[in-house]
Amino acid sequence: MEPTPPPDAVLFACNYNVVRSPMAAALMRELYGARVFVDSCGLRAGDQPDPFVAAVLEEIGVDLSRHEPKSFDELEDGSFDLVVSLTPQAQHRAVEMSRGRAVDIEYWPTADPTLEGGARAQRLEAYRQLRDALKARLIARFGPPGAAQG
């Protein structure tokens, strides 16, 4: 599939909005800038962003400190051109949300790094793998960052 420029508004969705969807949203903002409205949500809102997410994003200069987890029901605006679901459960909810709306839905199966056990270093590596996989997927889907900015 050839990359296409990002749409005007993208929503990333997962289960709790504390790992996968906020990471994808932060990377999207970093890569494609303010010309794309980006938000994220979960089926339910988790308590707080996962500290490992903040750590691996900080390694590449991406700030997650302003993220507050929210659910689909807490979205301020439901007008998205594209909803990217990162879990099967979020995909089902995204399809329900899109009924009667002109919105594209994509499912990007994404590993859950919280399932990684072991020492802190092992766990951080699982989060780095997720970060790098999401970044590669964004670039494959939307093209090189410089080409998308006008």
Cα separation of the termini: 22 Å
The CATH C-level name is Alpha Beta
What share of the residues lie within helices? Answer: 25-40%
Average pLDDT number: 92
> What characterizes the major β-sheet?
4 strands, parallel
Look at the helices and sheets and give the structural class. alpha/beta
Number of helices: 5
In CATH terms, what is the fold-level topology?
A: Rossmann fold
Overall tally of structural domains: 1
- CATH superfamily, please? Response regulator
Low-confidence stretches: none
Query: Count of DSSP E strands?
Result: 4
- Shape field: globular
Q: What string, H for helix and E for strand, traces the elements in order?
A: EHEHEHEHH
